[in-house]
Write a structure and sequence with these properties.
mainly alpha
Length: 229
Amino acid sequence: MLNTPDDSGYHFDPAIIVDHLDDLGTGLLRTLAISAIGMAGALIVGALLGAMSTLRIPVARQLITVYVEVFRNTPLLVQIFFLYFALPETGLQLGGFTVGWLSLLLWGGAYNVENFRAGFEAVEGGYVEACRALGFPRLAAFRHVTLPIGARIALPSVTNILISVFKNSSFMIAISYPELTETAVNIVAVTFRVFEMFLAIGVVYLGLVWLMSLGARAFEGRFAIPGGH
């Protein structure tokens, strides 16, 4: 028979959350910091390497393929452990903050390379051919036609990955970096109030992801290609 709250002696205590707002706020700021750098980097890396892959630059395209395959086909947690625990054995020591944003950047960037590449390659060939017929060099045609249209096509999938980058910041608990989730776990270790702490951070994550999704939809609507591509 399941215990009711009264049977178990449990009583929800919001004061536990209020008493630790400062600690949770500090953890949230750390989460936002590594997420912001990771998201910005994943966007830049994805667009740059996606363009290089589309342009079929010799050697670079093969190296990009290796990067994408490695980071898309291995768990993010393994990548974090490699950066934090394995690299020091080679003499390269990275702090928790650096591992946080770098792992998110590399993971998100690998997915965005393919998102941007797919968007660029979805641009109708007639647009590019018309541009080349007007005397534009290959790179100029890409910059003026393929890039702006392809980026719009890739936008929904790119924004989804950026939101995932933010959510995946909670994986930094694995290296004890004091972001929001790790902070909540540390508070639980002292107060033993599991329900209150995880309810609090769950609401925070839900609210922030909802705001990001709302902003992404508005952004996508603003830059959507009329009548498709």
